[in-house]
């Protein structure tokens, strides 16, 4: 990552809204390198509050997606990656030797930029995490599919066509289906990487409403380019710049009275 000459990085400024209990995720002194020398994350320390929505914002290439992908060890799939530091979910270190990566990914549901329904029916998409778990009980699967589709605000639109291909849904419906599939696996945390970037404004508004409805039931971490969206949906916002966590605090404060000069410069459009 390029670092402008002479640039210095003061300590992260914190002013979090806390949820009261222990955090869902704790990240401590976390560093990541792609391929030996290209450091993408620098000494990130932050806690993600349980049941709240946390937004990761910052200019392109600042490490938002990299950090998000560390939370379910998706970066493990990239050759030559090296990490230092610790990430724990509900107290257990997900990078500890012998940690069960499949179990970790189940605890951290993921929704990607582009909706990625499987080429199967609407019903089977949502039933998928249960089938992978070896669940055969039809009544239980039916109930979970309905509950998850209701949870993702899609049930009314698809209840009469559950056996039709998911690929026939609109982009916004497909994204809500992917959220239903993620919910059906009963994750503790939902990770969303720019979930609205491929959607039109109406579909985007529906996903934002949905995030609001899911608040409290799940801990949500959302990467977004869209500052208005971060302002609308999140409780806490983490502003990242060149792989550093510059400011992490209550969203309303980050957007109206940020405590770090660099955050101020970014939200007022001085760079980005
Ligand atoms: N697979 C990879 N291999 C090597 N370098 C990578 C890889 N993925 C990301 N990077 C680098 O890591 C840095 C952070 O990238 P990342 O995608 O996490 O940023 P971002 O803030 O999510 O950007 P954007 O908003 O553009 O998606 C960038 O310099 C990027 O080039």
UniProtKB/TrEMBL annotation:
InterPro entries per record: AAA+_ATPase, ABC_transporter-like_ATP-bd, ABC_transporter-like_CS, PstB-like
Domain ABC transporter: 25-267
Protein name: Phosphate ABC transporter ATP-binding protein
Keyword Nucleotide-binding belongs to the record: yes
Molecular function GO terms recorded: ATP binding; ATP hydrolysis activity; phosphate transmembrane transporter activity
GO biological process: phosphate ion transmembrane transport
CDD domains in alphabetical order: ABC_PstB_phosphate_transporter (cd03260)
UniProtKB keywords: ATP-binding, Nucleotide-binding, Phosphate transport, Transport
Keyword Isomerase tagged: no
GO (cellular component) term, any one: membrane
